[in-house]
TrEMBL record:
Protein name: Putative major pilin subunit
Coiled-coil regions listed in the entry: none
DUF1559 domain residues: 41-313
SUPFAM superfamilies: Pili subunits
Keywords attached to this entry: Membrane, Transmembrane, Transmembrane helix
Length: 336
């Protein structure tokens, strides 16, 4: 057969996807994503909450190691403008280098190493931060004496309970004469000053722990030490205002609104936030929420004195919360 007369052999054509078929496939993929995405988000939040729990357990272990070393619990703080338990626990959180740069003596709110303030460690220690909140490393710079400057943002606070005034009175927490009214486990250090202390010129000469675990007669497993603090979404990362106060500088805060680094106001009359959007009108007012988180369900992780971490629902009654913080009243309350 000549090429001119050769038969042309045809091949069957390939049919492509129709528009309807493509739309069906896209719809199926969309449904699968819609089904899987919540599960992925829940898994991520579960991992974040687990990391938050781990952070508090590390703090609990540090508290016990401090007690093993000094036979005393870590102090609430050294002085009103001095370093709090968070700074004093740094050597037990593998942060010896940062701790060695801090000066726990001298004028507490002024005499601190510039190296410590600018070091990478002071910008934000992961052990002090809950991953469920937006990450931020440093508090803002206020720019004046009142607003101050905070260093090393943090998400956990030291729980306190005062038997007297429920409003804001700095001396309720810090004045040595008022320590008998302090009902929480961690109280102020036994501190000697070069002269009578006041707001701006007190100078620490020596300090030591005040209490051992023997103070916690209600039992270590029934007494709370630390918990997640409430930070309104609009105040996250802000420094030292009447609404934000001492909340964001755990290693060091300048300014008269930036004292008590990591120390929460007494829980008497102050409970849980309803969520991240729960606004604080004035931190110093009685009744303002102290505890809160950005976890699913707004549950709050709480460190007990025995080192265990309990997950607390924001529906926990105010009475039970206060009894968990009081360490020696003989009224033991279990967490539902």
């Amino acid at each position: 057969m000549s090429p001119a007369t050769a038969l042309v052999v045809s091949r069957p054509s390939r049919r492509g996807f129709t528009l309807v078929e493509l739309l069906v496939v896209i719809a199926i993929i969309g449904v699968l994503i819609a089904l899987l995405l919540p599960a992925v988000q829940q898994a991520r939040e579960a991992a974040r909450r687990m990391q938050c729990t781990s952070n508090l357990k590390q703090l609990g272990l540090a508290v016990h190691n401090f007690h093993d070393t000094y036979d005393k619990m870590v102090p609430l703080a050294i002085a009103k403008e001095g370093h709090s338990a968070f700074s004093l626990l740094l050597p037990y959180l593998e942060q010896d280098n940062l701790y060695n740069q801090l000066n726990t003596m001298g004028q507490p709110d002024r005499d601190v190493s510039l190296t410590a303030l600018t070091s990478d460690g002071a910008k934000g220690l992961s052990v002090f931060m809950c991953p469920s909140r937006s990450a931020r490393e440093m508090s803002g710079n206020g720019g004046n004496h009142y607003e101050g400057t905070g260093f090393a943002a943090y998400d956990y606070g030291i729980l306190t309970y005062h038997g007297g005034n429920t409003g804001w009175d700095e001396w309720n927490l810090h004045n040595d004469a008022s320590q008998s009214n302090q009902r929480q486990a961690l109280r102020m250090a036994k501190t000697n000053f070069s002269h009578v202390p006041n707001l701006d010129t007190e100078t620490v000469t020596t300090w030591s722990g005040r209490d051992s675990f023997a103070r916690v007669t209600d039992g270590l497993s029934n007494t709370a030490l630390f918990a997640e603090k409430h930070v309104p979404a609009e105040k996250l990362g802000a420094c030292c205002t009447p609404e934000n106060g001492e909340r964001d500088g755990v290693i060091f805060n300048f300014g008269s609104w930036g004292r008590a680094h990591g120390v929460l106001l007494p829980v008497r009359g102050r409970g849980f936030a309803k969520g991240p959007q729960d606004v604080i009108y004035n931190l110093h007012n009685a009744g303002e929420p102290q505890l809160g988180s950005w976890h699913s369900g707004n549950v709050v992780n709480m460190l007990m004195a025995d080192g265990a971490v309990q997950t607390i629902a924001p529906t926990l009654s105010q009475v039970v919360l206060e009894r968990l913080v009081i360490c020696n009243d003989g009224e033991v309350n279990s967490i539902p």
